[in-house]
């Protein structure tokens, strides 16, 4: 420890603050990892080779890009739901349940994305609120 | 199957069941509608039709396969049950003695099939609804 010890009480307080910071960092990292895993689902994976390449590039890329990919996945899902009326008119959709299932799917994906986003924002705010 | 599809595989399976049952109901409707059709383009009276279901099999890269649903693979004609022969003199398709061959469609049997198809459709819907409920409950963990 490079810091000059203030006394037994002060030292304990400092330890506690450091431990809290560490815990918070770990929590934020695990939320981030969970979000990434969830949103990997949204990535387009045309072939196993490409999937691996994307995996590798994702490891190197920043967190921002991960979220962009994730948002794209959710966006694709919503676009598919949005194109339902046209597909219905053109005769591509032939069953009632196809419409219902696609809408529900888009709804669930969006809800999931929103919940994860809320968690990320919450974690960020929690860190920002911390007294130093 | 891409990533998000994997999340919704249960939904996909249930939807395939719904489509298959829907196809079965279509064929039952056709049978009931044609219960009195004595002349078809192929010649002879209408023949009762049945749907053959097949599992949807997905093969993974490592050679293993798994079933991901069901599909109505083919509509086949019922060639085992005999045609109904009735004496209706004056019918345009009656033979010299007044006998007419009617389709081998039995209304009672078709209705029974219709009920089972409807119940299977409902069962698949129940799976669908349960899956949605499960997903929503799981999402509630985040709240």
Task: Describe the 3D structure.
The complex is a heterodimer of chains A (132) and B (143). With 132 residues, chain A is mainly α. Chain A has one domain (8-127). Chain A contains 5 helices and no strands. In chain A, helix 1 (8-40) packs antiparallel against helix 5. The longest helix of chain A has 34 residues, at 96-129. Chain A is rod-shaped. Residues 43-51 of chain A have low confidence and may be disordered. Chain B is an alpha+beta fold. Chain B has one domain. Helices cover 44% and strands 22% of the residues of chain B. Chain B is built from 3 helices and 4 strands; from the N terminus they run H-H-E-E-E-E-H. In chain B, the strands form 2 sheets. Chain B has a two-stranded antiparallel sheet with strand order 1-2. A two-stranded antiparallel ribbon of chain B has the order 3-4.
Attribute tags:
heterodimer; A: 132 residues; mainly alpha; 5 helices; 0% strand; rod-shaped; B: 143 residues; alpha+beta; two-stranded antiparallel ribbon; two-stranded antiparallel sheet; 4 strands; 44% helix
Structural class of chain B: alpha+beta
**Helix vs. strand class of chain A:** mainly alpha
- Counting DSSP E segments of at least 2 residues, the number of strands of chain B comes to 4
Oligomer: heterodimer
Average pLDDT of chain B, rounded to a whole number, is: 92
Roughly what is the average pLDDT of chain A, rounded to an integer? 71
Give helix and strand order of chain B, one letter per element, not per position.
HHEEEEH
Helix content of chain B: 40-55%
Sheet-strand content of chain A, in percent, reads under 5%
**Widest beta sheet: strand line-up of chain B:** 1-2
